[in-house]
Amino acid sequence: MNEIKNERELVKRLKTLFEEKRPTSLKKIFIHTNLATKKFRDIWREWWRSEIPPGLEVDMISVFEDTTGIDKVLIAGVEIEFFKDKTKSFCDGLQQILSFGLFGFDSLVLWHIFSERMENKNIEECVRSTEEIIKGFNLPIVYLATKLIGTDRFELFAPWRLSGSVEADYLLSSLKDCCNKKRNPLLNKEEIERRKKMLKIKLNIPV
Fold first, then answer.
1. What pLDDT, on the 0 to 100 scale, is given for residue 148?
2. Beta-carbon count within 10 A of 26 CB
3. CA distances from 157 to 120, 145, 163 (A)
4. What is each CA distance from 172 to 15, 17, 122, in whole angstroms?
5. Cα–Cα distance between 150 and 127 in angstroms, integer?
6. What is the model's pLDDT at position 153?
7. What CA–CA distance (Å, rounded) separates 21 from 141?
8. In whole angstroms, what is the distance from residue 111 CA to residue 83 CA?
9. What are the Cα distances from residue 205, in Å, to 27, 63, 128, 189?
10. 74: in domain
11. Angle at the Cα of 91 (from 89 to 97), degrees rounded to 5?
């Protein structure tokens, strides 16, 4: 595999891989979804009399079947941060993923992906710091941390540590289980529920 140049290229490769290896519970994957298009802004202004928060492009949206929910789908907003070396911060992506909660995602996922070149001890230090923040402040975030191995396998560091590597179907099934257990608490508000309906319309998901 040629070396991945940036996060956008990585996200595109992940989409292709997940669509090939998808478990039956995964219904759809969207990438690089702009939540600040003119149409979306116009609807937002009409309903909430304010401007949409800026800079909201979601790296990946995973739509899972949800047998326990009212509308039968679990929509997870995923913020992906690619670490090619030690220059990035362990808290990268936290602010962005929390902002997604306003738009009615069922679950908020922060996914740190580390280059195969990085040493495990450096990855573990980063993961430990991120987990301390999320758990210490009881943030409603599903935290996923993996090292990309080759073209299609992952070494898992969070939400639990596994030796060796796993395939994409295991990763997606684990992600769904984690999202089931940790939901966006803002969905208890009627306004956020209405925004979820608006999000489903944008994604062409039956309301």
1. 93
2. 20
3. 9, 5, 9
4. 12, 11, 25
5. 21
6. 92
7. 25
8. 11
9. 10, 9, 37, 21
10. yes
11. 130
Give strand pairing partners of 63: 28, 75
- Domains contained in the chain, number: 1
Structure confidence at residue 55 (pLDDT): 55
CB atoms within 10 A of CB 98: 15
Instruction: State both tokens at 145.
Output: 């941390």
- The whole-angstrom separation of Cα 93 and Cα 110 is 7
Residue 121, amino acid: K
Residue 1 domain-assigned?
A: no
Residue-range definition of the domain harbouring residue 126: 7-202
Q: Considering the domain boundaries, does residue 18 fall inside one?
A: yes
- Are 192 and 80 contacting, i.e. CB atoms less than 8 angstroms apart? no
pLDDT per residue over 74-125, tens digit each?
999 999 999 998 778 888 899 889 988 888 899 999 999 999 999 999 999 9
Query: Residue 53's pLDDT is what?
Result: 57
pLDDT of residue 49: 60
Domain assignment present for residue 207? The answer is no
Contact 168, 21 (CB under 8 A): yes
Helix (H) or strand (E) holding 38: helix 38-48
Q: What residue ranges in the chain does DSSP mark as E strands?
A: 26-34, 57-65, 73-83, 107-114, 142-149, 153-158, 166-167
Segments of the chain scoring below 70 in pLDDT: 1-2, 36-55, 69-70, 207
